[in-house]
Amino acid sequence: MNPLKHVAIIMDGNGRWGLKHYNSRKRGHRAGLKTVEKIIKATLKLKIPYLTLFAFSTENWKRPKSEINYLFNLLQDFLQKKILKLNKKDIKLKIIGEKKFPKKLSNLLSKSEKITNNNLALQINLALNYGSKNEILYAVKSLIKKKKHITEKNISSELYTKNIPDPDILIRTGNTNRLSNFLLWQLSYSEIFFFNKYWPDFNETDFIKIIKKYKKVKRNFGEI
Ligand code: IPE
Ligand code: IPE
Ligand code: MG
């Protein structure tokens, strides 16, 4: 049975779900947040120590302003209402990505990270304004600046995910089979599960099914 330390998720399909059921992409994002809460609960229960959630990519800035604002407001509301609860559950929140948001949200994100910094039960990496190519480029530039060798180990140590084991599992919901510039370096040996359901329809049972499948996979890492 494979050990499981880290699950990463591309939470895709909110917009299509919202359009299908309510003719509104925004409704889909709202419903998607409910799934986030369910999956956080399940991850805690399963005692998986790291959960990385892709919430907003560097490419998502190309979307209409009203959708972007809606997403940021949802996140702001969520943190305002729930951060103390997350803290009580011993959850640590870490933002991965460049924190370039409206001031109120940026401050709230920093505050949430600070409040939860010493928590140990579960670390949630929330990927916000995250792009993997940017991250790798920044890491290499930083090594050059520090006059350090460009090695795999050193590059890893300059990524947002330094000190975090690489994801064992990547899940992408939404019936789309691509990585969309997510964790390209860290996913080199992850087991990838593309899932047909839209993110708002994804649930604990689906999550557990994937984990069960993962546990039985023969992970070779190049060996036979
Ligand atoms: C993923 O859902 C969530 C974000 C990118 C914020 P989408 O909004 O991409 O939903 P679809 O893929 O358009 O259905
Ligand atoms: C990836 O989904 C980003 C997030 C889930 C936050 P997208 O919906 O933005 O990906 P593409 O554009 O379809 O590849
Ligand atoms: Mg999408």
**How many extended strands?**
6
Q: For the terminal residues, how far apart are their CA atoms? A: 17 Å
Number of domains: 1
The whole-angstrom Rg is 17 Å
The CATH superfamily turns out to be: Decaprenyl diphosphate synthase-like
- CATH first level: Alpha Beta
Kindly describe this structure.
The chain is of the alpha/beta class. It has one domain (6-216): Decaprenyl diphosphate synthase-like (Undecaprenyl pyrophosphate synthetase). The protein has helices spanning 14-22, 25-45, 65-88, 103-116, 132-145, 152-156, 204-216; strands spanning 6-10, 50-57, 91-96, 122-130, 169-172, 191-194. Helix 4 (103-116) links the parallel strand 3 (91-96) and strand 4. Helix 1 packs across helix 2 (25-45), helix 2 packs parallel to helix 3 (65-88) and helix 3 (65-88) packs parallel to helix 4. The longest helix is centred in the middle third of the chain and has 24 residues, at 65-88. The two termini are 17 Å apart. The chain binds 3-methylbut-3-enyl trihydrogen diphosphate (2 copies) and magnesium ion (MG).
